TrEMBL record:
Residues 100-134 are annotated as: Disordered. GO terms for biological process: mitochondrial respiratory chain complex assembly; protein import into mitochondrial intermembrane space. It is found in: Mitochondrion intermembrane space. It comes from the Eukaryota. GO terms for cellular component: mitochondrial intermembrane space. The keyword Repeat does not apply. The keyword DNA-binding does not apply. The gene is Chchd4. Residues 62-98 form the CHCH domain. It holds the Pfam family CHCH. This is MIA40 protein.
Amino acid sequence: VSYMVGKDRIIFATKEDHETPSSAELVADDPDDPYEEQGLILPNGDINWNCPCLGGMASGPCGEQFKSAFSCFHYSTEEIKGSDCVDQFRAMQECMQKYPDLYPQEDENDEKSSKDLEAASMEASAAKEEKGSS
């Protein structure tokens, strides 16, 4: 008996199952499997929320806010990319401030403000995205 939970298959085996020789076959990796490491942007242009490059940001306590802000930035068609996403980034920032252990904030005395870091992060993502789409 087996069933799928997300991307994982759960299999229950009996003692008899273990006593018979395995008939399992290795299957080649599916290049269309979105859970495989394909980088930040999938071939169809969608965001790969499972990319290790996101460092778990999409699944943490502020995952929905992160996804909203990052999606807005990714699909932004404004001349200054992401300039229409201020509200989403503000919501993400406010959420992250509630979890200082998970999302350390830099000291106010630091030369860079959180907005500078946010912009640098988005620019780096955009550069990766452009690099990966060629």
